[in-house]
Design goal:
CATH superfamily: RutC-like
Protein name: RidA family protein
CATH architecture: 2-Layer Sandwich
Structural class: alpha+beta
Number of strands: 5
Strand order of the largest sheet: 1-2-5-3-4
Pfam families: YjgF_endoribonc
Largest sheet: 5 strands, mixed
Keywords: Signal
Order of helices and strands: HHEEHEHEE
């Protein structure tokens, strides 16, 4: 083979190796299992799409048996447990996105995350709790997973859930 052919082949192989993995590939390589997409429990829809934006309703965390994860952070729930609940909520959000779009690869960017934390009035680490969701979104989407965010403390949440998180994504 000519040297020029070998160089081109080398650049192609190197380029493929440097190619960022797709979100679906990341889900697989991280060993993530998305739960079944949740159905609404009241008078709302789980997803609204307008133009190139998808708005996901608030999602709540469930354990491996499908039971709602409940409790007040800082009282009956530790920080680690709350972050895990936020991570599980992110998985539920991804499941809804995948069901709506057919593939997470259609997500161009996570635009905004809105997180609510069930906590007492003197609890001030809501951002640390919602990092459980944000960190997972960045693991799956890379820089396109970096988002604007709010993390708010709530005196109570529906079903006494530990967190409730909504999401806005830009899609193709």
């Amino acid at each position: 083979m000519k040297l020029s052919t070998l160089l081109v082949m080398g650049f192609l192989i190197a380029g493929a190796a440097l190619r960022a993995a797709t979100p679906e590939e990341n889900v697989k390589s991280l060993g993530l299992v998305l739960p079944p997409a949740a159905s609404p429990v009241a008078n709302y829809v789980p997803v609204v799409r307008t133009g190139d934006l998808v708005f996901l309703a608030g999602h709540i965390p469930r354990d491996d048996a499908g039971q709602v994860i409940t409790g007040k952070v800082g009282e009956t729930v530790t920080m680690a447990e709350a972050q895990d609940a936020a991570r599980r909520t992110a998985l539920a959000l991804l499941a809804t996105l995948r069901q709506e779009l057919g593939s997470l690869d259609r997500v161009k960017r996570i635009v905004r995350v809105e997180g609510f934390v069930n906590c007492p009035t003197d609890f001030t680490a809501q951002s640390s709790v919602i990092n459980g969701c944000s960190d997972l979104l960045i693991e799956v989407f890379g820089d396109q997973g970096r988002h604007a965010r709010m993390a708010i403390g709530a005196g109570s949440l529906p079903l006494n859930t530990t967190v409730e998180i909504a999401l806005i994504a830009e899609v193709d």
